[in-house]
């Protein structure tokens, strides 16, 4: 889903830049949230669901789901490639 937004941005919908930046910040944060699948170094990256306030969802849910990291990586790599091609590598290097 998010890859589609990145593609729309790369095709000219520049209004999505803020949404993409917020997504990146949220993803960086929730990777550190301990959850029913584990923590950052013990399986938590496969957690399928978080609350909108970036807290762990602790209800029943299909765990583990291992597609999340790959889907995040696909979207973020595509955005990173845009940063490099657009000569905005200082953003990709600084993280802001």
The unreliable regions are: none
Count every beta strand, where a strand is a DSSP E run of 2 or more residues: 0
Order of helices and strands: HHHH
The coarse silhouette is elongated
Largest sheet: none
Average predicted local confidence, pLDDT: 86
**Number of helical stretches of at least 4 residues:** 4
| Percentage of β-strand residues | under 5%
Distance between the termini: 23 Å
Number of separate structural domains: 1
Estimated radius of gyration: 15 Å
Structural class: mainly alpha
Helix content: 40-55%
Describe the structure.
This protein is an all-alpha fold and 96 residues long. The chain has one domain. It has four helices and no strands. Helix 1 packs parallel to helix 3 (67-85). The chain is elongated, with a radius of gyration of 15 Å.
Helices and strands in order:
Elements: H1 2-10, H2 17-30, H3 67-85, H4 89-94
Helix pairs in contact: 1-3
Question: Outline of this structure?
Answer:
By secondary structure, the protein is mainly α. The protein has helices at residues 2-10, 17-30, 67-85, 89-94. It has one domain.
